[in-house]
Amino acid sequence: MSAIWKSLRLTFSVAASALLLAQPGHAEQPIKIGAVLSVTGPASFLGEPQKRTIEMLTQQVNAGGGIGGRKIELVVYDDGGDANAARTFASRLIDEDKVVAMVGGSTTGTTMAMLPAFEEAEIPFMSMAGALQVVQPVRKWVFKTPQTDTMACEKIFEDIKARGFSSIAVVFGTDGFGRSMRDQCVSVAPKYNIRIVHEESFGPKDSDMTPQLTNVRGKKDVQAIVVPGIGQTPAILARNYRQLGMTLPLYVSHGVASREFIDLSAGGAEGARLPVPALLVGSSLASSDPQRAPVLAYTQAYEKAANQPVSAFGGFMHDGFQMVVEAIRRSGSSEPARIRDALEATKGFVGVNGIYSMTARDHMGLDLTGFRMVEIKNGNWSPIVAGN
């Protein structure tokens, strides 16, 4: 097939999709997209930038004429980080608001609470949650944008192994994400010849992790500490770590990849390492890196609109919302089933969190290349050079 014919076919496909979306009876109807986010409460550092991002992107799409001439009507609810509230709002989006797609679920707990409702209603659900259990086993109507907790463990273990360490302590959160990442780290540790020689845990409302860290410090065979956790508590742990004068290498999860974590740690996170998306190291990306352009564009737009630094969590929303919009465009339909099929057919979508290629067996579509290891230096993200 000639290049000219391929170009003509693509042009026809795009035009046909636009005509379908703008056909009589539909042209004036908005396309309703829902979001349930943890804008307030203990997970607000996740939900607040996600809400700002989806509102900003909706305005951009609508200012550009919408999708096939139809505007997006965004319906957002704040679950406050409460799974029961999230479940209630999910039902409202389905039964009352009649959304055709859902982009949200800031945490693993709220996401898992909402999944059954969207599956039963057969409405595509793009989650912002990190745990592997969101997409494994594969659920027909459920997708996600963040790398899994398994991938975070693997990226961390690669770095630990490269530094010549082999025995670690795991101090994990007892929330849904913390427990899931702990389990995944235990599962993949043998692959990297890493032994977990001690474990401690902390609750989401704990205000002092000194006892847990004191126990870790008493174990002579611990060479590094890995903290699977999310929310404010890992920042408190980092503060306590510094107060105790501990020098063991400290690793935290991608679940705290925001400026708020660094600030709340009051210097305790200095020297900690973690896997982050390209978004957080945009200025360090090579000019040839395909993610550089979308990362810099989103960073500039978000920081101008929100007057605050970008976070990985807003980036999860950026990619999820954009993929839903593109799925609607490609399918030429606002029917949930058509949107779902188009999402599953996503190939080579270059986002700020990674490059996505979905399949019927993979509703995330990312690999480890989406992660960049960084060390917190002078209160900022510093990319780690291989071998250091």
From TrEMBL:
Organismal lineage: Bacteria, Pseudomonadati, Pseudomonadota, Alphaproteobacteria, Hyphomicrobiales
Protein name per Swiss-Prot or TrEMBL: ABC transporter substrate-binding protein
This protein's record includes keyword Transport: yes
Stretch forming the signal peptide: 1-27
Provenance organism: Bradyrhizobium pachyrhizi
CDD domains the UniProt entry points to: PBP1_ABC_RPA1789-like
Family: Belongs to the leucine-binding protein family.
GO biological process: amino acid transport
Domain Leucine-binding protein: 30-377
